[in-house]
Specification:
The complex is a heterodimer.
Chain A (H helix, E strand, L loop, with lengths): L5 E5 L3 H11 L4 E5 L2 H9 L6 E4 L8 H9 L9 E5 L4 H10 L3 E4 L4 H14 L14
Parallel strand pairs in A: 1-2, 1-3, 3-4, 4-5
Chain B lengths: L9 E6 L3 H11 L4 E6 L2 H10 L3 E7 L7 H10 L7 E6 L3 H8 L6 E5 L4 H61 L8 H34 L4 E4 H11 L6 E5 L5 E4 L1 H17 L6 E10 L2 E8 L6 H4 L21 H12 L4 E6 L3 E9 L1
Parallel strand pairs in B: 1-2, 1-3, 3-4, 4-5, 7-9
Antiparallel strand pairs in B: 6-8, 9-10, 10-12, 11-12
Helix pairs in contact in B: 2-3, 5-6, 7-8, 8-10
The chains are: A alpha/beta, B alpha/beta.
């Protein structure tokens, strides 16, 4: 069986979450979480995640704190992260990239482009990531 | 714009090295709404002027031992803190002094000739007092306008970003629909995306209406009037026609406050109608109460309804955030609450929510008296 990459979506808007899942489910294993806390919990339990696509403005823990927490982890600290946010000012983009995000996309998005961007970031960070075993739960 | 602040006393700093002159001046200028500070040397005068930011006028004797009146004035004019205080020199007016006087900024500096003529002195000080009160009013208005502008700026920023959220979903969904085969959509998915997009566009339309409504109110309703909140809440409660089994009650007596009636009404109306709309109990109540909080009155709207889920409590005041509570029964948007937040915050208050599934929701907001 062909190994597939696990994409983790972190997004508090249910509709956007669904659109993203639909956009990606043919090519990736998709796991989605509604906030960074749930996402951290999933990661800390050792679940396989190859790349993270996250919103910035979320309740409880915002995207930047989320990046920082991930990067501080010995277990999954090297996971590629793409930000998907309505904030389009360069100060926010710079701050996120400096915190350790690998790329930044602006909402509204084209589903095709999200898919292509994930592929591109995975290619770029290949030396950091090997596809983990497929079949992760939602 | 109405300045809501009360007239502050007019503080005059009297400077003369002779105690009896100070007393005579004070006696001459004594009037309701005025207060006096006295100094017998240039140094003491500077100390007062730097320490006390309420001084509106300095009556300054020119001939004093040590630092003379002109020197004091020069120092006051170089310090940004004291630069704008008006000065009246009290002088014997020699030729030389006349020349020096011309060197000072016109307008905020004047002089009175010794011996002082009571009527001229009184009239001059009256003019400076009016000028001071007028300038203070202007300054307050400017800072009020600046504050409101900042809030609006913040609001526009939030609106712009939160407007994008439903659009993001819609644009994504439309792209998926356009290429439904490529993305593997079945008929059920198609229906769902259409339904969602329709809802999102209704949200956007409602939100634009709410914003227009708010801006119309801001433009047409600027008057601050006495509003009897007991009466206001009573009227709103009656007009909501709460269904049988839901009681709206006022605990204690709600006070009369100074307010833009339309805005305060919008706050109560939204909170009460939400409490009624989302109520899920056979025997429901909504209770309005208040507490005196010094400058503000804090109003409470408590219900014993279903409560608001923890994950929604943080975001409920954001534009467009709706709670899962509505369970498809009503297409209300989250727009209402974010505008309430703006209304409450623009007059200096805060709006808060405490909620749990067991006890219902408690909204509180501060209103300036």
């Amino acid at each position: 069986m062909e190994k597939r990459y696990n994409v983790m979506i972190v997004e508090d808007d249910a509709f956007i979450r669904k659109v993203l899942r639909q956009s990606l489910h043919q090519d990736f294993e998709v796991i989605s979480h509604i906030n960074a806390f749930e996402a951290m919990d999933w990661l800390e339990k050792g679940n396989p995640v190859d790349i993270i696509l996250t919103d910035l403005k979320m309740p409880f823990m915002n995207g930047q704190e989320f990046i920082r927490t991930i990067r501080a982890s010995a277990l999954f600290g090297k996971t590629p992260i793409i930000i998907l946010s309505t904030f389009d000012d360069s100060a926010t983009r710079i701050a996120c990239l400096e915190e350790g995000a690998d790329d930044y996309m602006i909402k509204p998005f084209n589903p095709m482009e999200v898919k292509a961007k994930i592929m591109a970031v995975l290619r770029r960070t290949e030396h950091r990531v090997k596809p983990s075993s497929a079949g992760a739960a939602d | 714009m109405t300045s809501t602040l009360l007239k502050r006393p007019f503080t005059i700093l009297l400077v003369d090295d002779r105690e009896e002159n100070l007393l005579a001046l004070e006696d001459m200028l004594e009037q309701e709404g005025r207060e006096f500070i006295k100094a017998t040397s240039g140094n003491e005068a500077l100390r007062h002027a730097l320490k006390n930011d309420r001084i509106g006028l300095i009556m300054l004797d020119v001939q004093m031992p040590g630092m003379d009146g002109f020197e004091v004035a020069r120092l006051l004019k170089t310090n940004p803190k004291t630069r704008d205080i008006s000065i009246i020199f009290v002088t014997a007016i020699s030729k030389e002094e006349q020349y020096i006087l011309k060197g000072f900024d016109e307008g905020a500096v004047d002089y009175l000739q010794k011996p002082l003529d009571i009527n001229v002195t009184k009239a001059k000080v009256n003019v400076f007092e009016r000028l001071y009160q007028y300038q203070r009013g202007l300054k307050e208005t400017v800072s009020e306008v600046e504050k409101i502008n900042k809030q609006l700026e913040k609001f526009v920023y939030i609106v712009a970003h939160d407007l994008k959220s439903p659009l993001t979903g819609m644009i994504g969904a439309l792209t998926l629909l356009e290429q439904r085969e490529a993305f593997g959509l079945d008929q059920e998915d198609v229906n769902e995306y259409i339904k969602h997009s329709k809802e999102a566009s209704t949200y956007l339309s409602d939100m634009i209406n709410a914003l227009l409504d708010y801006s119309r109110k801001s433009i047409t309703q600027q008057t601050i009037e006495d509003v009897d909140t007991q009466e206001l809440v009573g009227q709103i409660a009656k007009l909501l026609f709460p269904p049988r089994g839901i009681r709206i009650e006022i605990k204690g007596t709600l006070p009369v406050v100074k307010a833009n009636r339309m805005k305060l009404q919008q706050v109560f109306q939204n909170l009460l109608s939400n409490a009624v709309k989302y109520h899920d109990k056979q025997d429901g109540f909504v209770e309005v109460s208040c507490r005196d909080n010094g400058e503000f009155v804090t109003y409470y709207v408590q219900d014993n309804g279903p409560g608001i889920p923890m994950e929604d409590q943080q975001t409920i005041f954001r534009l467009f955030q709706t709670s899962v509570n509505q369970s498809g029964t009503d297409s209300s948007t989250g727009v209402g609450l974010s505008i309430l937040k703006l209304i409450v915050e623009e007059q200096g208050g805060q709006i808060k929510l405490k909620s749990s599934p067991d006890t219902g929701s408690l909204f509180s907001f501060d209103w300036r008296k």
